[in-house]
Amino acid sequence: MLKKSIENLQREAAATGTNTLKRSLGGVNLVAIGIGVIIGAGLFSLTGIAAANNAGPAVILSFILAAVGCAFSALCYAEMASMVPVSGSAYTYAYATLGELFAWIIGWDLVLEYSVGAATVGISWSHYLVKFLDKFNIHLPAQWLASPFDKITLPDGSVIHGWINLPAVLIVVFITAIIIRGTKGSALFNAIVVALKVGVVLVFIALGWRYINPSNYHPFIPANTGEFGHFGWSGILRGAGVVFFVFIGFDIVATMAQETKNPKKNLPIGILGSLIICTILFVLFGYVMTGLAHYTSFKDTAAPVAVAIQQTPYEWLGMAVILAILIGYTSVILVDLLGQSRVFYSMSRDGLLPKVFSQLHPRFATPHKSNIVLCVFISLFAGLVPISVVGEMTSIGTLLAFVMVCLGVLILRKKQPDVPRAFKTPFVPVVPVLGIVTCLLMMFSLPADTWLRLLIWLAIGFVLYFSYGKKNSKLRQELDQTATAEDKKL
């Protein structure tokens, strides 16, 4: 239960030297990073699912409710980030408020989420790349597009097993190479791909607006079928739960604290700015999509946006959407790998993980060895494991991190009310409590096997912590040295 003091963390944030990360990110860069991970392929699929099964055209209200739920946690993240602008995000915040063991749990949790997230997105990226190339009659060998556990039916009817999902491996390796070159270069690459995919979303909204059929909005809130969550106001609530996971990702902005110029000002801008921009885009996207086609036409389709596009004369928009998904996935992989290596970096600097994860490149000042180790692990995971396995790993760890951050704000407001806060969460304790309640409800709505996988992963983490982390904790060693020195004086 040892805790890091806020004062020590602030000194760590202000430190300079050869083994510190370069501060090269501004507020605009952080907003782009947040948008980069929030806008993924989920926007193009979950919008149709929530409209068809839960909310109808009122899916835009579901987006607003989900955004409000995320905002509770985002406001708490903004306060913690302005107080403790240190790489590591929720891991570091837990270290300062709840103690070392809770910090380890959150850090270990985030490692799982970012790893599985990057691998899952890598596999999906490969799938959409094949679809994109097929449009140009470019066909890659089937054996190189699936894991050894996947069966592939060839055009002649024969069934073979895959060898490795090579495109999934290559995209992880490619993104890792960009990250190792430096955060500034990664931010530039991310800004370019974010601009492209946001551009496609804006084109869809602008072109689709002219072909909206107002009759598709009636009824705006379809009557409840008699079952909770199937239309009516309960459907809007259930729809909010479905689209909630589209918003998750703004928290990764906080992992970039030690690479941010003026973090006390720019971190809140990055966290809240990306959430606000994405909410506006999602509401407009949902409005146009349900206006182009009746919400019932999105049922039982894996490509609801394609159904909406059919109501316009712009067939090329379908290709643009596939391209936007490819671009969207690329930026999500980038931000996941960035966030994960920064959590590892912080845990390693604290002595809870081996030093290799915090050693920086002499030229690029990035944790390159950590990036390489993670690249090998994640690329093999993406290349050899079926998406049906990795895809089931949902965002339970991220939600748990949200709960810890909201709890951290409550604790620090009570125990250290005089610590300077460049940004203050409004309406405390109401906002943090609502953040905790919202995230816990989302967690308990997840399947039981998700909880089982989380518990197994945590059990592995506990073994590592008590066999290595606890013994090598720098905070524990410093306190032991202080106690020994005082004993000698006595």
Keywords:
490 residues, mainly alpha, two-stranded antiparallel ribbon, 2 strands, 67% helix, 1% strand, globular
Give a brief outline of the structure.
By secondary structure, the protein is mostly helical. The protein has helices spanning 6-14, 27-38, 42-55, 59-83, 90-97, 100-134, 166-180, 183-209, 232-247, 263-292, 304-309, 316-349, 368-384, 387-390, 396-415, 430-444, 448-472, 474-489; strands spanning 151-153, 159-161.
Summed up, the helix count is 18
Please mark out the parts with pLDDT under 50 across 5 or more consecutive residues, or reply none. none
**Share in β-strands:** under 5%
- What would you call the shape? globular
Number of strands: 2
**Alpha-carbon Rg, integer:** 23 Å
Describe this structure in words.
This protein has 490 residues and is an all-alpha fold. The chain is built from 18 helices and 2 strands. It has a two-stranded antiparallel sheet with strand order 1-2. A hairpin with a 5-residue loop joins strand 1 and strand 2. Helix 3 packs antiparallel against helix 9. The radius of gyration is 23 Å and the shape is globular.
